[in-house]
Amino acid sequence: MSELDPAGAPAHEAMTAPPPVIVLVRPQLGQNIGKAARAMLNFGLTEMRLVAPRDGWPNPEAGPAASGADLVLDQARLFESVAEAVADCSQVYATTVRKRGVTKPVVTPAEAAMEMHAAPGRAAILFGPERSGLETDDVAIARAILTVPINPEFGSLNLAQAVILVAYEWSRGVALAQPPAVALEPPASQADLDGMIGQLETMLDTAGYFFPPDRVPATRRTLRTMLTKPGWTAQEVRTFRGVLSALANPRAR
Amino acid sequence: MSELDPAGAPAHEAMTAPPPVIVLVRPQLGQNIGKAARAMLNFGLTEMRLVAPRDGWPNPEAGPAASGADLVLDQARLFESVAEAVADCSQVYATTVRKRGVTKPVVTPAEAAMEMHAAPGRAAILFGPERSGLETDDVAIARAILTVPINPEFGSLNLAQAVILVAYEWSRGVALAQPPAVALEPPASQADLDGMIGQLETMLDTAGYFFPPDRVPATRRTLRTMLTKPGWTAQEVRTFRGVLSALANPRAR
Fold first, then answer.
1. Cβ separation of A41 and B156 shorter than 8 Å?
2. Nearby residues of B36 by Cβ (< 8 Å), 6 or more positions away
3. The predicted structure's pLDDT at residue A1
4. What is d(CA B161, CA B182) in angstroms, rounded to the nearest whole number?
5. Is the pLDDT of residue B140 over 90?
6. Between B97 and B168, where is the model more confident?
7. B 126-145 residues with CB below 8 A of A?
8. Residue that wins the pLDDT comparison between B7 and B75
9. Which of A179-183, A202-206, B122-126, B193-197 has the lowest mean pLDDT?
10. Distance of alpha carbon B33 from its chain centroid, rounded?
11. Which of A244, B56, B86, B198 could be B124's S-S partner, Cβ–Cβ 3.0 to 4.6 Å?
12. Separation CA A16–CA A18 (nearest Å)
């Protein structure tokens, strides 16, 4: 691990993907935010984002629990929604213990770490509230589900433990990671993707596609899952938006 | 992890080494003994041994902290010395964060896990007291030193976190030989895909999208590349065709 500088960034960062962002979604206890920060810094992760923490932010209970990982808390950024928190990220993982009724790739922490090291662009890893975990709408934003393979008879990971396993796997990969032989275009940012999905949904709304009303949320999730699955580049997202614009505004030639 | 039975022992135990024993050497707080038990059971380890716990044993603070991992605490065995605790074990690892002035092999949790799965006989992993860690005499009993590769600028693993990383790595070794747990739906057939792309191209042609003529072949290739990239399932292809039909034939509601 000698290639970690004090802030935890790999010295060869220019050649490989930046370290992932840890996103705590609606965390409940300040103490657990502190413990997560401590878990992160042990393995060189420094960038924490908080989505609507229950007790506000800053939280005086976080600092003591961080056991010295203050720089992570000091730099933590606050967001109102998951979408805003991951807008600049090109790979988003949703950490869940249980399998969901969502058709997305399921990866282990080791597989996610390999992907994060191999792919360009910044990754975000979502962790849900301590008691309930991520909601279906949070999971829908992600491209893949990250599941820790756990004893099926006793799955009882707390938030900081889930964070430490993911951070540990990422850190293991730092030493192993090689820059990709071919520089791949990174997937479009989440914000670009949201713009594209918004354009399609507006058109479909106009066309009367969303019917009956009680099935609309599920239909929207299905569309989002499909459209996040490809990992389209920014150029591909622009092309798809051009396709949609052409369909919305035909011109005679 | 389907090969784990409720007690966490691999079903193919007869063919491989038994799960390692976790030895807590002079642990201080009952709470931390409980947290270590919880960490162990998450990854299928059930055998805990306690060497001279500071506050005696049983300790009423251990149970609540174990969050349901009572079977680990109930079966925990008490010893007066490290030597007695590991007497039946054929591989002993001493977990330390810092390197000691002892000439022994130093392995990572991943390397230790591989060794434990490969070698016959029972392994024991020693963890020291929360505040001070293992003493030199404890380390001397071990055949190898197990060190978690940690951020050199911030090494702050607590006892349960060190235990969980070791247990996690052992558990990964169990699972590696197994097929993936989730079989994803296969991508749609090429014929389904061609039908979908044909439908889109017909609509785009009508909308005047393909212009100028000399760029049409390249544009078609770009669209095909984008739409084959996701590996959509047959159901997703049907959904996308439904989207296209809705856009082509809007209905007022």
1. yes
2. B22, B24, B27, B48, B127, B159, B160, B163
3. 34
4. 28
5. no
6. B168
7. none
8. B75
9. A179-183
10. 21
11. B86
12. 6
Q: Which of A239, A240, A238, A206 is nearest to A226 (CA)?
A: A240
Nearest to A207 among B153, B233, B246 (CB): B246
| Mean pLDDT (chain B, rounded) | 85
Is the distance from CB of A48 to CB of A40 less than 8 angstroms? Answer: yes
Task: Supply A198's token pair.
Answer: 């918004």
pLDDT higher at A197 or B250:
A197
ipTM at complex level: 0.73
Cα B208 to chain centroid distance, Å, stands at 52
Q: Across the interface, do A251 and B200 touch by the CB < 8 Å criterion? A: no
**C-alpha distance from residue B81 to each of A6, A164, B24, B87, B137 (Å):** 39, 31, 11, 10, 11
Task: Inform me whether the C-beta atom of residue A152 falls under 8 Å from chain B C-beta atoms.
Answer: yes
Beta strands A91-95; B21-25: pairing state? unpaired
Instruction: Identify the residue whose tokens are 């996610």.
Output: A112
Q: Which residue has the higher pLDDT, A103 or A146?
A: A146
Q: Which CATH class is domain B21-171?
A: alpha beta
Mutate to test the interface with A, among B107, B154, B210, B226 (most CBs of A within 10 A): B154
Each domain of chain A, given as residue ranges in start order, spans 21-171, 190-248
| CA-CA-CA-CA torsion sign (B164, B166, B169, B175) | negative
Structure token pair of residue B42: 């998450």
Give the model's pLDDT for residue B98: 62
Cα gap B249→A228, rounded to integer Å: 25
Q: Which of residues 60-119 of B touch A (CB under 8 A)?
A: 67-69, 110
B68: nearest CB among A44, A156, A251: A156
Greatest Cα pair distance, chain A, in angstroms, is 69
Predicted confidence band at B91 (pLDDT cuts at 50, 70, 90)?
confident
Q: A93 by DSSP, 3-state: which?
A: strand
